[in-house]
Write a structure and sequence with these properties.
The complex is a heterodimer. By secondary structure, chain A is an alpha+beta fold. Helices cover about 35% and strands about 20% of the residues of chain A. Chain A has helices at about 5-25, 30-40, 50-65, 90-105, 150-155, 175-190, 205-215, 230-240; strands at about 75-85, 130-140, 145-150, 160, 195-200, 255-265, 275-280, 285-290, 295-300. The radius of gyration of chain A is 20 Å and the shape is globular. Chain A starts with 6 loop residues before the first helix and ends with a strand. By secondary structure, chain B is an alpha/beta fold. Chain B has one domain (about 1-170): fumarase (Alpha-Beta Barrel), CATH 3.20.130.10. Chain B has helices spanning about 10-15, 35-40, 80-90, 105-115, 125-130, 140-145, 170-195, and strands spanning about 1-5, 20-30, 55, 60-65, 65-70, 95-100, 115-120, 135-140, 150-165. Chain B starts with a strand and ends with a helix. The chains are: A alpha+beta, B alpha/beta.
Protein backbone atom coordinates (compact mmCIF):
# COMPACT_ATOMS: atom_id res chain seq x y z
CA UNK A 1 0.00 0.00 0.00
CA UNK A 2 1.39 3.36 -0.98
CA UNK A 3 1.32 6.29 1.39
CA UNK A 4 -0.41 9.01 -0.54
CA UNK A 5 0.08 12.03 1.65
CA UNK A 6 -2.68 14.58 1.37
CA UNK A 7 -1.54 18.07 0.49
CA UNK A 8 -2.15 19.02 4.12
CA UNK A 9 0.09 16.18 5.30
CA UNK A 10 2.78 17.17 2.79
CA UNK A 11 2.67 20.68 4.21
CA UNK A 12 2.94 19.26 7.72
CA UNK A 13 5.95 17.16 6.69
CA UNK A 14 7.63 20.23 5.18
CA UNK A 15 7.02 22.18 8.39
CA UNK A 16 8.57 19.35 10.41
CA UNK A 17 11.69 19.49 8.22
CA UNK A 18 11.90 23.26 8.71
CA UNK A 19 11.70 22.70 12.47
CA UNK A 20 14.51 20.11 12.30
CA UNK A 21 16.62 22.68 10.41
CA UNK A 22 15.81 25.48 12.89
CA UNK A 23 16.65 23.36 15.89
CA UNK A 24 19.87 22.07 14.30
CA UNK A 25 21.06 25.57 13.41
CA UNK A 26 20.24 27.21 16.76
CA UNK A 27 20.65 24.46 19.40
CA UNK A 28 23.66 22.23 19.96
CA UNK A 29 22.75 18.71 21.10
CA UNK A 30 23.16 18.24 24.86
CA UNK A 31 25.98 15.67 24.54
CA UNK A 32 28.07 18.26 22.65
CA UNK A 33 27.23 21.02 25.16
CA UNK A 34 28.34 18.67 27.96
CA UNK A 35 31.65 18.02 26.16
CA UNK A 36 32.26 21.77 25.78
CA UNK A 37 31.54 22.29 29.51
CA UNK A 38 33.87 19.44 30.38
CA UNK A 39 36.58 21.20 28.37
CA UNK A 40 35.87 24.43 30.21
CA UNK A 41 36.47 22.66 33.53
CA UNK A 42 39.83 21.35 32.27
CA UNK A 43 41.26 24.73 31.29
CA UNK A 44 43.25 26.74 33.81
CA UNK A 45 41.54 29.69 35.45
CA UNK A 46 42.02 33.02 33.61
CA UNK A 47 43.76 31.25 30.73
CA UNK A 48 43.15 32.02 27.06
CA UNK A 49 41.59 28.57 26.64
CA UNK A 50 39.08 29.27 29.38
CA UNK A 51 38.37 32.70 27.86
CA UNK A 52 37.57 31.14 24.46
CA UNK A 53 35.40 28.40 25.93
CA UNK A 54 33.46 30.88 28.05
CA UNK A 55 32.65 32.89 24.94
CA UNK A 56 31.64 29.65 23.19
CA UNK A 57 29.43 28.68 26.15
CA UNK A 58 27.74 32.09 26.12
CA UNK A 59 27.24 31.84 22.36
CA UNK A 60 25.57 28.43 22.65
CA UNK A 61 23.14 29.80 25.25
CA UNK A 62 22.44 33.00 23.32
CA UNK A 63 21.70 31.24 20.01
CA UNK A 64 19.26 28.88 21.69
CA UNK A 65 17.51 31.72 23.51
CA UNK A 66 17.23 33.85 20.37
CA UNK A 67 16.50 30.87 18.11
CA UNK A 68 19.14 32.12 15.66
CA UNK A 69 22.05 30.41 13.88
CA UNK A 70 24.78 29.82 16.45
CA UNK A 71 27.44 30.22 13.77
CA UNK A 72 27.05 32.58 10.82
CA UNK A 73 28.33 29.83 8.54
CA UNK A 74 25.38 27.46 8.52
CA UNK A 75 27.56 25.25 6.36
CA UNK A 76 26.91 22.18 4.25
CA UNK A 77 23.43 20.74 4.74
CA UNK A 78 23.69 16.96 5.19
CA UNK A 79 20.42 15.05 5.53
CA UNK A 80 20.27 11.35 6.47
CA UNK A 81 16.69 10.13 6.15
CA UNK A 82 15.08 6.70 6.41
CA UNK A 83 11.51 6.65 5.14
CA UNK A 84 8.70 4.07 4.80
CA UNK A 85 9.30 2.12 1.62
CA UNK A 86 5.74 2.78 0.48
CA UNK A 87 6.44 6.50 0.46
CA UNK A 88 7.56 8.14 -2.78
CA UNK A 89 11.24 9.05 -2.46
CA UNK A 90 10.99 11.62 -5.23
CA UNK A 91 8.21 13.45 -3.41
CA UNK A 92 10.20 13.32 -0.18
CA UNK A 93 13.25 14.83 -1.87
CA UNK A 94 11.09 17.64 -3.23
CA UNK A 95 9.61 18.35 0.19
CA UNK A 96 13.05 18.45 1.83
CA UNK A 97 14.37 20.89 -0.81
CA UNK A 98 11.32 23.09 -0.30
CA UNK A 99 11.91 23.05 3.46
CA UNK A 100 15.51 24.18 2.88
CA UNK A 101 14.29 27.12 0.79
CA UNK A 102 11.73 28.02 3.49
CA UNK A 103 14.28 27.72 6.32
CA UNK A 104 16.70 29.96 4.37
CA UNK A 105 13.97 32.58 3.93
CA UNK A 106 13.34 32.51 7.68
CA UNK A 107 17.04 33.09 8.38
CA UNK A 108 17.73 29.68 10.01
CA UNK A 109 20.21 29.04 7.19
CA UNK A 110 22.56 31.57 5.58
CA UNK A 111 22.38 31.93 1.79
CA UNK A 112 25.24 29.54 1.37
CA UNK A 113 25.11 27.74 -1.99
CA UNK A 114 27.36 29.26 -4.65
CA UNK A 115 27.62 28.31 -8.33
CA UNK A 116 31.25 27.19 -8.64
CA UNK A 117 31.61 28.47 -12.21
CA UNK A 118 29.86 31.84 -12.07
CA UNK A 119 30.20 32.62 -8.36
CA UNK A 120 26.47 33.39 -8.29
CA UNK A 121 24.35 32.69 -5.23
CA UNK A 122 20.65 32.20 -5.95
CA UNK A 123 19.89 32.69 -2.27
CA UNK A 124 17.91 29.49 -1.75
CA UNK A 125 20.58 26.92 -0.75
CA UNK A 126 19.19 24.61 -3.45
CA UNK A 127 21.40 23.95 -6.46
CA UNK A 128 23.70 21.40 -8.08
CA UNK A 129 24.67 19.04 -5.24
CA UNK A 130 23.09 21.11 -2.46
CA UNK A 131 21.60 20.16 -0.08
CA UNK A 132 23.12 16.68 0.28
CA UNK A 133 20.35 14.11 0.71
CA UNK A 134 20.92 10.51 1.79
CA UNK A 135 17.48 8.92 1.41
CA UNK A 136 16.93 5.28 2.26
CA UNK A 137 13.64 3.39 2.25
CA UNK A 138 13.01 0.97 5.10
CA UNK A 139 10.32 -1.41 6.41
CA UNK A 140 9.15 0.78 9.28
CA UNK A 141 6.09 3.02 8.92
CA UNK A 142 7.76 6.24 10.15
CA UNK A 143 10.67 8.48 9.12
CA UNK A 144 14.02 8.74 10.89
CA UNK A 145 15.35 12.21 10.03
CA UNK A 146 18.88 13.30 10.94
CA UNK A 147 20.62 16.50 9.96
CA UNK A 148 24.19 17.74 10.23
CA UNK A 149 25.22 21.32 9.43
CA UNK A 150 28.95 21.49 8.82
CA UNK A 151 30.71 24.83 8.47
CA UNK A 152 33.28 25.58 5.76
CA UNK A 153 36.13 26.40 8.15
CA UNK A 154 36.22 22.88 9.55
CA UNK A 155 35.45 21.27 6.18
CA UNK A 156 38.60 22.93 4.79
CA UNK A 157 40.87 21.24 7.34
CA UNK A 158 39.77 17.65 6.74
CA UNK A 159 42.33 15.34 5.14
CA UNK A 160 42.80 12.04 3.36
CA UNK A 161 45.89 9.86 3.66
CA UNK A 162 46.91 7.12 1.24
CA UNK A 163 48.95 4.56 3.16
CA UNK A 164 51.84 3.96 3.26
CA UNK A 165 52.47 7.68 3.78
CA UNK A 166 56.15 8.53 4.01
CA UNK A 167 55.69 12.14 5.23
CA UNK A 168 53.83 10.94 8.31
CA UNK A 169 55.70 7.62 8.49
CA UNK A 170 52.42 5.69 8.47
CA UNK A 171 52.24 2.06 7.40
CA UNK A 172 49.15 -0.02 6.66
CA UNK A 173 48.18 -0.84 10.23
CA UNK A 174 46.45 0.75 13.22
CA UNK A 175 49.69 2.39 14.35
CA UNK A 176 49.82 4.09 10.94
CA UNK A 177 46.17 5.11 11.21
CA UNK A 178 46.85 6.67 14.59
CA UNK A 179 49.71 8.74 13.18
CA UNK A 180 47.41 10.03 10.43
CA UNK A 181 44.75 11.05 12.97
CA UNK A 182 47.25 12.91 15.18
CA UNK A 183 48.84 14.54 12.12
CA UNK A 184 45.41 15.77 10.99
CA UNK A 185 44.92 17.49 14.36
CA UNK A 186 48.36 19.13 14.13
CA UNK A 187 47.68 20.29 10.55
CA UNK A 188 44.31 21.79 11.51
CA UNK A 189 45.88 23.77 14.43
CA UNK A 190 43.57 26.67 15.30
CA UNK A 191 42.01 26.87 11.86
CA UNK A 192 39.09 24.51 12.34
CA UNK A 193 37.53 26.36 15.33
CA UNK A 194 38.53 23.93 18.05
CA UNK A 195 37.97 22.10 20.27
CA UNK A 196 36.78 19.74 17.58
CA UNK A 197 35.67 16.18 16.93
CA UNK A 198 37.06 13.87 14.26
CA UNK A 199 35.14 11.40 12.10
CA UNK A 200 37.57 8.84 10.67
CA UNK A 201 37.18 6.02 8.14
CA UNK A 202 39.81 3.37 7.60
CA UNK A 203 39.51 1.94 4.09
CA UNK A 204 36.82 2.50 1.46
CA UNK A 205 37.70 4.57 -1.59
CA UNK A 206 38.29 8.32 -1.82
CA UNK A 207 34.57 9.17 -1.97
CA UNK A 208 33.04 6.51 0.31
CA UNK A 209 35.75 7.15 2.91
CA UNK A 210 35.00 10.86 3.21
CA UNK A 211 31.24 10.32 3.00
CA UNK A 212 31.20 7.71 5.78
CA UNK A 213 33.61 9.77 7.92
CA UNK A 214 30.88 12.44 8.14
CA UNK A 215 28.30 9.83 9.12
CA UNK A 216 30.41 9.19 12.21
CA UNK A 217 29.17 12.58 13.44
CA UNK A 218 25.71 11.03 13.87
CA UNK A 219 27.14 9.11 16.84
CA UNK A 220 26.76 10.59 20.32
CA UNK A 221 29.85 12.04 22.02
CA UNK A 222 29.92 9.63 24.92
CA UNK A 223 29.15 6.39 23.05
CA UNK A 224 31.60 3.51 22.97
CA UNK A 225 32.76 1.90 19.75
CA UNK A 226 31.48 -1.71 19.59
CA UNK A 227 34.79 -2.80 18.07
CA UNK A 228 37.26 -3.10 20.99
CA UNK A 229 40.37 -2.21 18.98
CA UNK A 230 38.71 0.86 17.49
CA UNK A 231 37.34 1.85 20.91
CA UNK A 232 40.91 1.79 22.23
CA UNK A 233 42.16 3.76 19.21
CA UNK A 234 39.49 6.43 19.78
CA UNK A 235 40.40 6.83 23.44
CA UNK A 236 44.13 6.96 22.78
CA UNK A 237 43.77 9.50 19.99
CA UNK A 238 41.71 11.89 22.13
CA UNK A 239 44.16 11.62 25.03
CA UNK A 240 47.27 12.05 22.89
CA UNK A 241 45.83 14.83 20.70
CA UNK A 242 45.12 16.78 23.88
CA UNK A 243 48.81 16.54 24.75
CA UNK A 244 49.58 18.70 21.69
CA UNK A 245 48.60 21.85 23.63
CA UNK A 246 46.84 23.53 20.68
CA UNK A 247 43.77 24.30 22.80
CA UNK A 248 40.48 26.08 22.09
CA UNK A 249 40.72 28.18 18.88
CA UNK A 250 44.45 27.37 18.80
CA UNK A 251 45.06 29.74 21.75
CA UNK A 252 46.92 27.01 23.64
CA UNK A 253 45.43 24.81 26.37
CA UNK A 254 44.29 21.34 27.28
CA UNK A 255 41.15 20.93 25.16
CA UNK A 256 42.20 20.43 21.56
CA UNK A 257 39.89 17.53 20.72
CA UNK A 258 36.61 16.48 22.34
CA UNK A 259 36.22 13.18 20.55
CA UNK A 260 37.31 10.81 17.78
CA UNK A 261 34.88 8.42 16.06
CA UNK A 262 36.40 5.68 13.89
CA UNK A 263 34.88 3.01 11.64
CA UNK A 264 36.27 0.75 8.91
CA UNK A 265 35.11 -0.05 5.38
CA UNK A 266 36.48 -2.78 3.17
CA UNK A 267 39.01 -1.65 0.58
CA UNK A 268 40.59 -2.99 -2.61
CA UNK A 269 44.01 -4.56 -2.01
CA UNK A 270 45.84 -1.73 -3.79
CA UNK A 271 44.35 1.06 -1.66
CA UNK A 272 44.48 1.89 2.03
CA UNK A 273 42.91 5.26 2.73
CA UNK A 274 42.44 7.01 6.03
CA UNK A 275 39.81 9.74 5.61
CA UNK A 276 39.51 12.34 8.34
CA UNK A 277 36.66 14.83 8.64
CA UNK A 278 36.97 17.59 11.22
CA UNK A 279 33.92 18.97 13.03
CA UNK A 280 34.28 22.30 14.82
CA UNK A 281 32.89 23.04 18.30
CA UNK A 282 29.75 24.33 16.54
CA UNK A 283 28.82 20.68 16.07
CA UNK A 284 25.28 21.01 14.76
CA UNK A 285 23.47 17.69 14.73
CA UNK A 286 19.84 16.90 15.43
CA UNK A 287 17.42 14.12 14.60
CA UNK A 288 13.76 13.34 14.95
CA UNK A 289 11.28 10.55 14.48
CA UNK A 290 8.57 11.79 12.14
CA UNK A 291 5.24 10.00 11.62
CA UNK A 292 4.06 9.04 8.14
CA UNK A 293 1.57 11.90 8.47
CA UNK A 294 4.45 14.34 8.81
CA UNK A 295 4.41 15.07 12.55
CA UNK A 296 7.50 15.12 14.76
CA UNK A 297 7.09 12.44 17.45
CA UNK A 298 10.35 12.70 19.36
CA UNK A 299 13.88 14.09 19.23
CA UNK A 300 16.91 11.81 19.22
CA UNK A 301 19.70 13.96 20.65
CA UNK B 1 41.25 41.72 30.78
CA UNK B 2 42.56 44.81 28.96
CA UNK B 3 40.02 47.37 27.75
CA UNK B 4 41.14 49.32 24.70
CA UNK B 5 39.46 52.17 22.88
CA UNK B 6 39.61 52.71 19.11
CA UNK B 7 40.99 54.55 17.21
CA UNK B 8 44.35 53.06 18.13
CA UNK B 9 47.67 54.82 18.27
CA UNK B 10 51.10 53.32 17.74
CA UNK B 11 51.72 53.71 21.47
CA UNK B 12 48.58 51.74 22.41
CA UNK B 13 49.44 49.00 19.92
CA UNK B 14 53.05 48.70 21.07
CA UNK B 15 51.75 48.24 24.61
CA UNK B 16 50.00 44.99 23.67
CA UNK B 17 51.74 41.63 23.71
CA UNK B 18 50.97 38.13 22.51
CA UNK B 19 48.49 36.34 24.76
CA UNK B 20 46.78 39.48 26.05
CA UNK B 21 43.01 39.10 26.39
CA UNK B 22 41.48 42.34 25.19
CA UNK B 23 38.06 43.95 24.81
CA UNK B 24 37.79 46.57 22.10
CA UNK B 25 35.38 49.49 22.02
CA UNK B 26 35.02 51.99 19.18
CA UNK B 27 34.93 51.84 15.40
CA UNK B 28 36.00 48.85 13.29
CA UNK B 29 35.76 48.40 9.51
CA UNK B 30 34.89 45.03 7.99
CA UNK B 31 36.89 43.95 4.97
CA UNK B 32 37.38 40.55 3.44
CA UNK B 33 38.55 39.05 0.15
CA UNK B 34 37.21 41.52 -2.42
CA UNK B 35 38.15 44.63 -0.41
CA UNK B 36 41.69 43.39 0.30
CA UNK B 37 42.31 42.58 -3.35
CA UNK B 38 40.93 46.00 -4.35
CA UNK B 39 43.08 47.88 -1.84
CA UNK B 40 46.10 45.83 -2.87
CA UNK B 41 45.56 47.00 -6.45
CA UNK B 42 46.31 50.53 -5.23
CA UNK B 43 42.78 51.88 -4.72
CA UNK B 44 42.23 54.21 -1.80
CA UNK B 45 39.59 53.34 0.78
CA UNK B 46 36.45 55.55 0.79
CA UNK B 47 37.31 56.62 4.33
CA UNK B 48 40.75 56.96 5.94
CA UNK B 49 42.10 53.72 7.41
CA UNK B 50 44.85 55.52 9.34
CA UNK B 51 45.04 54.10 12.90
CA UNK B 52 41.99 51.97 12.08
CA UNK B 53 40.96 48.38 12.82
CA UNK B 54 40.10 46.04 9.94
CA UNK B 55 37.84 43.09 10.77
CA UNK B 56 37.90 40.00 8.53
CA UNK B 57 34.18 39.42 8.62
CA UNK B 58 31.25 39.04 6.26
CA UNK B 59 28.39 40.03 8.53
CA UNK B 60 24.72 39.22 8.05
CA UNK B 61 23.12 42.67 8.02
CA UNK B 62 19.40 43.33 7.70
CA UNK B 63 17.58 46.62 7.27
CA UNK B 64 14.97 47.01 10.01
CA UNK B 65 12.78 50.13 10.02
CA UNK B 66 15.28 51.95 7.81
CA UNK B 67 18.25 51.07 10.03
CA UNK B 68 20.99 48.51 9.44
CA UNK B 69 21.12 45.78 12.09
CA UNK B 70 23.85 43.12 12.33
CA UNK B 71 22.36 39.71 13.13
CA UNK B 72 25.52 37.57 12.85
CA UNK B 73 29.12 38.71 12.77
CA UNK B 74 31.79 36.10 13.43
CA UNK B 75 35.30 36.25 11.98
CA UNK B 76 36.32 34.58 8.72
CA UNK B 77 39.63 32.78 8.08
CA UNK B 78 42.39 35.38 7.79
CA UNK B 79 45.08 33.50 5.85
CA UNK B 80 43.30 34.28 2.59
CA UNK B 81 44.36 37.92 3.05
CA UNK B 82 48.00 37.06 3.77
CA UNK B 83 49.19 38.12 0.27
CA UNK B 84 47.65 41.60 0.71
CA UNK B 85 47.68 42.41 4.42
CA UNK B 86 51.27 43.56 4.90
CA UNK B 87 51.06 46.06 2.03
CA UNK B 88 47.76 47.43 3.34
CA UNK B 89 49.16 47.86 6.86
CA UNK B 90 52.15 49.77 5.44
CA UNK B 91 50.35 51.97 2.90
CA UNK B 92 47.22 52.85 4.87
CA UNK B 93 48.51 52.87 8.47
CA UNK B 94 46.14 50.18 9.75
CA UNK B 95 46.80 49.51 13.47
CA UNK B 96 44.94 46.27 14.09
CA UNK B 97 43.51 43.35 12.17
CA UNK B 98 40.78 41.14 13.67
CA UNK B 99 40.16 37.66 12.26
CA UNK B 100 40.56 33.99 12.99
CA UNK B 101 43.11 31.27 12.37
CA UNK B 102 46.13 33.60 12.48
CA UNK B 103 48.34 35.01 9.71
CA UNK B 104 51.77 34.31 8.27
CA UNK B 105 55.29 35.68 8.24
CA UNK B 106 54.68 38.67 5.96
CA UNK B 107 51.97 40.00 8.26
CA UNK B 108 53.99 39.25 11.40
CA UNK B 109 56.91 41.28 10.02
CA UNK B 110 54.63 44.14 8.91
CA UNK B 111 53.09 44.26 12.41
CA UNK B 112 56.56 44.55 13.90
CA UNK B 113 57.85 47.16 11.46
CA UNK B 114 54.82 49.46 11.21
CA UNK B 115 53.20 48.99 14.65
CA UNK B 116 50.15 46.80 14.13
CA UNK B 117 48.59 43.79 15.94
CA UNK B 118 46.57 40.75 14.92
CA UNK B 119 43.60 40.13 17.19
CA UNK B 120 41.99 36.70 17.19
CA UNK B 121 38.22 36.56 17.69
CA UNK B 122 36.43 33.33 18.60
CA UNK B 123 35.34 31.59 15.41
CA UNK B 124 31.72 30.56 15.22
CA UNK B 125 30.63 32.83 18.07
CA UNK B 126 28.29 34.71 15.75
CA UNK B 127 25.70 35.66 18.37
CA UNK B 128 28.09 36.84 21.10
CA UNK B 129 30.02 38.97 18.62
CA UNK B 130 26.87 40.39 17.04
CA UNK B 131 25.74 41.46 20.54
CA UNK B 132 28.99 43.41 20.91
CA UNK B 133 28.10 45.54 17.87
CA UNK B 134 26.21 48.60 19.04
CA UNK B 135 25.56 50.31 15.77
CA UNK B 136 26.15 50.25 12.03
CA UNK B 137 27.53 53.74 11.41
CA UNK B 138 28.01 53.50 7.66
CA UNK B 139 28.55 51.18 4.73
CA UNK B 140 30.84 51.67 1.75
CA UNK B 141 30.99 49.75 -1.53
CA UNK B 142 27.69 47.96 -0.99
CA UNK B 143 26.92 47.97 -4.73
CA UNK B 144 30.49 47.26 -5.79
CA UNK B 145 31.27 44.39 -3.40
CA UNK B 146 27.87 43.06 -2.28
CA UNK B 147 26.66 42.90 1.32
CA UNK B 148 29.01 40.32 2.94
CA UNK B 149 32.07 41.82 1.18
CA UNK B 150 31.26 45.53 1.66
CA UNK B 151 33.12 47.82 4.09
CA UNK B 152 30.81 48.09 7.10
CA UNK B 153 31.70 50.78 9.62
CA UNK B 154 30.66 49.28 12.95
CA UNK B 155 30.68 50.74 16.44
CA UNK B 156 31.52 47.95 18.88
CA UNK B 157 31.55 47.72 22.65
CA UNK B 158 33.65 45.24 24.65
CA UNK B 159 34.36 43.12 21.60
CA UNK B 160 36.40 40.15 22.93
CA UNK B 161 39.67 39.12 21.24
CA UNK B 162 43.10 37.67 22.02
CA UNK B 163 46.36 39.23 20.75
CA UNK B 164 48.03 36.44 18.76
CA UNK B 165 50.53 38.51 16.73
CA UNK B 166 52.03 41.55 18.43
CA UNK B 167 54.17 44.45 17.21
CA UNK B 168 57.35 43.02 18.78
CA UNK B 169 57.78 40.14 16.35
CA UNK B 170 55.91 37.54 18.41
CA UNK B 171 53.28 35.17 17.06
CA UNK B 172 51.29 32.81 19.26
CA UNK B 173 50.45 30.76 16.15
CA UNK B 174 54.14 30.25 15.39
CA UNK B 175 54.88 29.28 19.01
CA UNK B 176 51.99 26.82 19.31
CA UNK B 177 52.72 25.25 15.95
CA UNK B 178 56.35 24.73 16.98
CA UNK B 179 55.41 23.32 20.38
CA UNK B 180 52.69 20.99 19.08
CA UNK B 181 54.99 19.86 16.26
CA UNK B 182 57.62 18.86 18.82
CA UNK B 183 55.06 16.93 20.90
CA UNK B 184 53.74 15.25 17.76
CA UNK B 185 57.26 14.05 16.92
CA UNK B 186 57.55 12.53 20.40
CA UNK B 187 54.16 10.82 20.08
CA UNK B 188 55.18 9.39 16.68
CA UNK B 189 58.40 8.00 18.14
CA UNK B 190 56.44 6.37 20.97
CA UNK B 191 53.98 4.81 18.49
CA UNK B 192 56.83 3.40 16.37
CA UNK B 193 58.68 2.06 19.42
CA UNK B 194 55.55 0.38 20.78
CA UNK B 195 54.95 -1.24 17.40
CA UNK B 196 58.54 -2.49 17.19
CA UNK B 197 58.34 -3.89 20.75
CA UNK B 198 55.17 -5.85 19.98
CA UNK B 199 56.81 -7.70 17.08
Amino acid sequence: MAFNLTSKQQKQLQESFVEVIRKTSAELPQDVVDAVLEGLEQEAKDSRGEYALKIIQKNIELAKKKSQPLCQDTGSILFYVHYPRQMCGEMLGKIIRKSVVAATKKGFLRQNSVDSLTGKNNGTNVGAGTPTLHLEPWKKDYLDVRLILKGGGCENVGGQYSLPDSRVGAGRDLAGVKKCILDAVQQAQGKGCGPGVLGVIIGGDRSTGYSASKEQFLRKMGDKNAHPELARLEEECVREANELGIGPMGFGGKTTLMGVKVAALNRVPASFFVSVSYMCWAYRRQGAQVSNKGEIRKWFY
Amino acid sequence: MIQIQAPFTEEKVRGLKVGDMVEISGVVFTGRDAVHKWLHEGNDPPVSFKDSIIYHCGPVVLKKKGKWVVTAAGPTTSTREEPYQAGIIERLGVRAVIGKGGMGEKTRLACQKFGCVYLHAVGGAAQVLAEAIEEVENVYGLEQFGSPEAIWQLRVKNFPVVVTIDSHGNSLHKDIEAHSGKVLGELFTAISEKKAASK
